[in-house]
Amino acid sequence: MKTILLKFAGPVQSWGTSSQFESRSTNRYPSKSAVVGMLAASFGYSRDDKRIDQYNQLDFAIRVDQPGKLLTDYHIAQKTKADGEVDQVYVTNRQYLQDAVFVVALGCDDEDWMAEIEYALRHPYFQPFLGRRSNPLTADFFIGTGSQDVITSLENLTWQASGWYRRKNSGKVILSIYADAHLIEGSPRQMVRDRVVSFSQKERLHGYRAVARKDIVLRPSGVRDNHDAFSAF
């Protein structure tokens, strides 16, 4: 097993899976489909490339190290006619997460394939973004690789939140992990429309995948506490 760990910590991020028309919402944490799109961009695939589907098979988990706050941005957009004249002006509302920090874990038993993914992320063909083109990755987005599975990797990784946020939350901290449901046994499952079928501009399609959640407790130092805080329940 090889696992790649990535940190998403831009000033603003946006991870929509249900946006429509003038209302562009964001989820509270990055979607797997968005990360698959990031991998496809790094490899230089076109939107219609059938090879994109293989990245749905990667083990995927995400840890919320700093949840961030919602920001709604007011936009004016224009629709033009074929001759370039303005046909319609309308308002769009777009949501972002500000000051959020997430750790993404991608894993697979095929270490050669994972090495190719690592190289592509470090040397992307197209620039990857944090959900939208206006949201670039930070320079330290690539944390590293390991031989543990994705859940164990996230459990053992030190807290990646900003310094000011760690100082503000100096007691024990509970971090949530959201993962492909088969990676977390015994947890309730939720079906989300987050499996890439097609990124085609003519017809974007997404299927459903099962997601489960697990919470871990960190001591003030940012290291996982082995004590099960939920055992009394």
Compact overview of the structure:
The chain has 233 residues and is an alpha+beta fold. The chain has helices at 32-43, 111-122, 150-156, 163-168, and strands spanning 2-8, 12-13, 23-24, 59-66, 69-80, 86-98, 101-108, 142-146, 173-180, 190-198, 205-218.
Describe this structure in words.
- The chain is 16% helix and 38% strand.
- The chain has 233 residues and is of the alpha+beta class.
- It has one domain (2-15, 27-66, 98-218): Alpha-Beta Plaits (2-Layer Sandwich).
- The strands form two sheets. It has a seven-stranded antiparallel beta sheet with strand order 8-1-7-4-9-11-10, with helices on both faces.
- The two termini are 33 Å apart.
- Mean pLDDT is 86; it is low at 225-233.
Largest sheet: 7 strands, antiparallel
The CATH architecture can be named as 2-Layer Sandwich
Structure class: alpha+beta
CATH topology: Alpha-Beta Plaits
Termini separation comes to 33 Å
Number of helices: 4
Query: For this structure, what is the CATH class?
Result: Alpha Beta
Give the CA-based shape.
globular
Total strands = 11
Q: Which strand-content bin applies to the residues?
A: 35-45%
Q: Which range best describes the helical content: under 10%, 10-25%, 25-40%, 40-55%, 55-70% or over 70%?
A: 10-25%
Main sheet strand line-up: 8-1-7-4-9-11-10
Number of domains: 1
Task: Report Rg.
Answer: 19 Å
Mean residue pLDDT:
86
Low-confidence stretches: 225-233
Q: SSE order, as H and E?
A: EEEHEEEEHEHHEEE
